[in-house]
Design goal:
The complex is a heterodimer of chains A (about 230) and B (about 850). Chain A is an alpha+beta fold and about 230 residues long. Chain A is built from 4 helices and 10 strands, in the order αααββββββββββα. The chains are: A alpha+beta (about 230), B mainly alpha (about 850).
Chain lengths: ~230, ~850
């Protein structure tokens, strides 16, 4: 039996999607901001493949096509057309939508003031080679482990005790450097409860490859229960 | 055409050979000729490429499978740091410098570069600096903080071993050669083109190489400054990047990438120049859109200095600034697009001959365009925040650098190999080499984009199973070994061609540019006679030109004087202004480089008295070297016949030395501005910036010292005005006056420095102030010594009202010293007072 086109397409996309999943995959997003970046990526990827193939095809055609003679003025016109359309118009036309859609995405990821309520605040300090995680209100302190509520914005206040590290949980969104004496804020908001993984992204010396963090995302009730339980200790 | 008939061509070549040849045996180490030096640069660069490639193979072996421990974290960190460092600083930049050194005089119809001894010095600095870096690997003390050496990781607290010092000192030593090449190539391209080659008649490659040279002049000083500051911090504890005392590690990143981004284009532009040279030859028509290309080159040069921050999108810079740098970064797509479509139009309107160099250019196109597209993606801040510091970036930069530099380089290798050696390479081996390299490269790096998107950070020595990175890494490693096989094939081809290659016919590709008019391989003087070149395509306009130049039918054929000569011309019109007499084989560059090596080894091993002695000896060597100029018996003494048509440059008031001085001061000024940038940056941004309780410098002696300096410079100005008019007061007395005033200024400044209660190890404020004072002192001291030497040279009759050249060359240095003094005083003492601090 010949499988229908739809089946084949579904099979391929399943294959691609399963190839794109993974504990650290940016293409398997679990938050709004990570999802927006993944969408931008797929758009950029699709357009880029077309540009690349188009340019290469033109190049090959130009090299192997039957040869013709061009008068000097004719050659001059062709030259101007190529340079203006390919060199000026094409990049400009490609860049403008990218900026129009891309820059607001970046803006939405910033720790902007919320319309109502306050974000959960967690302090994270990078050490060679572990993450120190503190919940200042509850007096909780953890190592290489973090607990978050789902569906609630969380501000992670980042700094470092020694060299520069970079805090990154790919499925939840962007990375931000942890720099000594600086206190930068990283806003995260996980969609669903689950376990997510992060790894230091800025090279920080001997133990860089093993500087991992596990992020447990709970429902709000479970999270509050966890705070109660651990905070009491 | 009076003299050519006098000498029969073979005799002319014999005489020129006698004047221009390197010394035999070990004497060849004293060679200053651009063909020899250029070749040495390129061979050494190729050697370092193999070293870097070997390191890459070790990296790929370690990462081939998850949870391997073949090399371990400690060695792995050295491997990737060294791979980046070797490929960037010891392969890519030097080999292109060598290419430019070899090529420029041949393209513009000159016999040598204008500062041949500087070429030689540059080569030895490169060689010795490269050896220092390489040997550290064998002693197990190679740098291991990554090739961009971020502080505080690279600082003394977290990298106490000598690794960081090796990097900082070795790279700085090597960068002397880059700056030397930048200055001399700029001046040579502008001031030694043959008759009638106006700017718009320059072969397009010259524009690319000119842009590269100028970008080196402005791009390298921030890195050199940063390296000096970090090395001082590591060695003495003066605070620049350490937060605790008011320094800032982010300042290192700014200074590094202020260099680092232009550097990408310093590498790309000459390679693109190779494409723009080779491609029209195989399309058998002039390049389309010459003016568009020149515009694109200039645009690229300018834009590349305005987008360094896109390497730092994750350090927490305000989003508005990031948006600005996003846009700026994407703008580079425009000049790049112009070039790609100009090449396309050239193919479109030409009659294309498909050959091995064109195959490599095709490979370049595919890989480079792909790398450019991922570059536009990375310029978008929110996407960058996800994939920054992952293998996606690793893949991107290899597409840009290998595609944008290595592939054109090999195209150039196959294109110019007959010119270099007189023999043709094998087509079959060449094609096999290409396909292995091309497929291996894409096998390694195409899938690596996915590795990065799947979240694998760069610079991890291993990874766990179950991360999803297993198969992509295995594919990358396999691809890497295929690519290595391709490179081996190229080496084999080149090695075999020396023995089995067919003799190349003259101008085998029917090229248009003048380097094909030399003998193959070329003679050290390039051309027996120098023809006017009022054209971009000399050999297409006149295929017999090479013959007539070799026959001695054009200018500059007299040899009786024994001088090495080439034309000096007007920067814009190419009108001949004078004849430049060039130095012959000299041991001073090697001596100076060796003593510099002692300085660097002294600093590296922390034997500071040794380093100090080295500095003194270097100064003596360099000054002794400078003594052999003008009418010195080893240069162009007066009692030998002088040319009749044009004066020798040292008898005029304008020559390459003056331009060299100005271009070198532009580089120096960039270093100074970088220091000012650092000062203002720390003042405004550093989180723990502190001010001393009261200003450590006393204003009155500083002002007095400045007044003395101003008087000295006014005196020097008057002296030069007198010289220009070829009259005026006794030269020697005036020079000694300036020396005396300058010395007074210097001593007063020294006293201010010694007596000031500067605590650079406590606060960054004082540390930067200390560096600034030393910087001013070095300039004042140098000015005094050089002026005193001028006074001495008057006594020897080397400088006089009839020979004012050298004194005029020194004038910009004094003006510069004056400028930085008052600017420094304003920025470091007066402005902070006005702000109410310090």
């Amino acid at each position: 039996m010949v499988p229908s086109i739809a089946t084949v397409l579904a099979g391929i996309s399943l294959l691609i999607l399963s190839g794109c999943s993974g504990p650290y995959s940016t293409l398997d997003p679990a938050s709004q901001s990570a999802r927006e970046v993944a969408i931008i990526w797929w758009w950029m990827f699709a357009v880029s493949v077309q540009v690349l193939l188009g340019v290469v095809a033109l190049w090959l055609y130009a090299m192997f096509r039957p040869q013709r003679h061009f008068s000097q003025p004719r050659a001059q016109r062709i030259q101007n057309q190529w340079v203006i359309w390919g060199g000026l118009v094409l990049p400009t036309v490609a860049i403008i939508p990218l900026l129009v859609f891309g820059l607001p995405v970046g803006h939405r990821m910033l720790p902007l003031p919320l319309e109502e309520g306050e974000p959960v605040t967690i302090q994270v300090t990078g050490h060679q080679w572990w993450w120190q995680v503190r919940y200042p209100q509850q007096g909780i302190e953890l190592q290489d482990e973090m607990h978050l509520p789902a569906g609630v914005p969380v501000d992670i206040e980042l700094t470092s005790a020694d060299v520069i590290h970079s805090f990154w949980v790919p499925r939840l969104g962007r990375k931000l450097d942890a720099i000594p004496a600086y206190h930068h804020v990283l806003r995260l908001q996980a969609d669903e409860p689950g376990v997510y993984y992060g790894q230091c992204a800025e090279f920080c010396g001997f133990g860089h490859a093993h500087m991992l963090i596990t992020v447990h995302v709970h429902s709000l009730e479970d999270y509050n229960a966890w705070l109660e339980e651990v905070g009491d200790e | 055409m009076s003299n050519p008939g006098a000498t029969e061509p073979r005799e002319l070549h014999r005489r020129l050979q006698a004047i221009w040849a390197n010394l035999p045996g070990f004497g060849t180490l004293s060679a200053v000729n651009h063909t020899s030096i250029g070749r040495r640069f390129m061979v050494t660069g190729a050697f370092f490429f193999l070293v870097g490639g070997l390191l890459a193979m070790l990296i790929r072996t370690q990462l081939a499978l998850p949870e391997q421990d073949i090399v371990g974290a400690h060695l792995y960190n050295q491997l990737f740091t060294m791979h980046g460092t070797v490929m960037m600083f010891l392969f890519a930049i030097p080999i292109l410098e060598g290419f430019a050194i070899y090529m420029v005089p041949k393209l513009i119809g000159a016999r040598d570069l204008v500062f041949p001894r500087i070429s030689s010095l540059g080569y030895y600095c490169y060689l010795f600096g490269g050896m220092i870096i390489l040997f550290s690997l064998f002693f197990g003390v190679a740098p291991d903080s990554g090739w961009f050496m971020y502080t505080p990781l690279s600082g003394s607290e977290f990298s106490p071993g000598p690794g960081s010092d090796v990097w900082l000192l070795g790279v700085t030593f090597v960068e002397i050669s880059a700056l030397a090449a930048g200055v001399e190539l700029t001046v040579s391209i502008l001031r030694s083109r043959s008759q009638g080659m106006t700017l718009r008649h320059m072969p397009i490659l010259c524009w690319y190489l000119l842009a590269m040279s100028l970008m080196i002049v402005f791009g390298f000083p921030p890195l050199i400054l940063a390296s000096i500051l970090l090395e001082i911090e590591r060695a003495t504890g003066l605070i620049f990047f350490e937060v605790a005392g008011g320094g800032d590690p982010i300042l290192w990143q700014h200074l590094f990438w202020l260099f680092g981004h232009p550097e990408v284009y310093i590498i790309f532009l000459p390679a693109a120049g190779i494409v723009s040279t080779v491609l029209p030859v195989f399309a058998q028509r002039p390049i389309v859109g010459y003016r568009w290309l020149v515009l694109a080159i200039i645009l690229t040069g300018f834009i590349s200095f305005g987008l360094w921050v896109h390497h730092m999108f994750t350090v927490g810079i305000p989003h508005l600034a990031q948006a600005f740098f996003s846009v700026a970064s994407m703008l580079v797509a425009i000049p790049t697009g112009i070039q790609i479509f100009a090449w396309l139009a050239t193919l479109w309107t030409g009659r294309v001959i498909f050959s091995l160099p064109m195959l490599w250019i095709f490979g370049f196109l595919v890989i480079f365009v792909a790398g450019g597209l991922t570059g536009v993606m990375l310029a978008l801040a929110p996407f960058n925040w996800q994939v920054h510091d992952t293998h996606f970036v690793v893949a991107h930069m290899h597409y840009v650098l290998v595609g944008g530099m290595f592939f054109p380089l090999i195209a150039g290798l196959y294109y110019w190999l007959p010119q270099l050696t007189g023999r043709m390479p094998s087509d079959l081996l060449g094609k096999t080499g290409f396909w292995l390299t091309f497929l291996g490269f894409n096998g390694t790096f195409l899938v690596m984009h996915l590795t990065g998107l799947l979240g694998m950070p760069r610079r991890v020595y291993t990874y766990a199973s179950g991360t999803g990175w297993e198969w992509t890494n295995l594919v990358s490693s396999l691809g890497g070994f295929v690519m290595a096989a391709g490179v081996a094939m190229i080496i084999l081809d080149v090695a075999l061609h020396f023995r089995y290659g067919q003799r190349a016919p003259r101008n085998p590709w029917n090229a248009d540019t003048l380097e094909w008019a030399t003998a193959m391989p070329p003679a050290p003087y390039n051309f027996a006679s120098l023809a006017p070149l009022p054209t971009r395509h000399p050999l297409w306009d006149n295929p017999e030109l090479g013959e007539s130049m070799a026959q001695g039918q054009h200018g500059l054929t007299s040899t009786g004087h024994g001088r090495r000569e080439t034309y000096g011309s007007d920067a814009v019109t190419g009108r001949i202004l004078h004849i430049i007499h060039l130095p012959t084989n000299s041991w001073w560059p090697l001596a100076a480089a060796l003593s510099l090596a002692v300085v660097f080894m002294g600093l590296l091993l922390r034997i500071y008295p040794l380093a100090l002695v080295g500095v003194g000896v270097t100064a003596v060597f360099v000054l002794r070297w400078s003594w052999e100029n003008g009418v010195h018996p080893n240069a162009a003494p007066l009692n030998v016949s002088e040319p009749e048509d044009y004066p020798l440059h040292s008898r005029t008031q304008d020559g390459p030395g003056l331009w060299g001085m100005v271009v070198a001061l532009m580089a120096n000024g960039t270093l100074y501005l970088s220091l000012l940038f650092g000062w203002f940056y720390l003042w405004t941004v550093a989180p723990l910036w502190t001010l001393p309780p009261e200003n450590p410098l006393s204003l009155a002696p500083l002002l007095l010292s400045g007044v003395l300096l101003t008087l000295a410079v006014i005196g020097y100005q008057q002296l030069v005005t007198g010289l220009r008019r070829r009259r005026g007061r006794p030269l020697k007395r005036q020079l000694w006056w300036v020396t005396g005033l300058g010395l007074g200024h210097f001593l007063l400044l020294l006293w201010v420095l010694v007596s000031a209660p500067l605590e650079g190890t406590v606060r960054a404020h004082d540390a930067v102030l200390t560096v600034m004072l030393y910087y001013l002192l070095i300039h004042s001291g140098t000015g005094v010594v050089l002026t005193a030497l001028q006074g001495l040279r008057v006594g020897y009759g080397y400088v006089s009202h009839n020979l004012p050249y050298e004194t005029i060359v020194l004038r910009p240095f004094w003006l510069y010293t004056l400028g930085i003094y008052w600017l420094g005083l304003a920025a470091f003492v007066l402005l902070p007072m006005a702000w109410g601090g310090g």
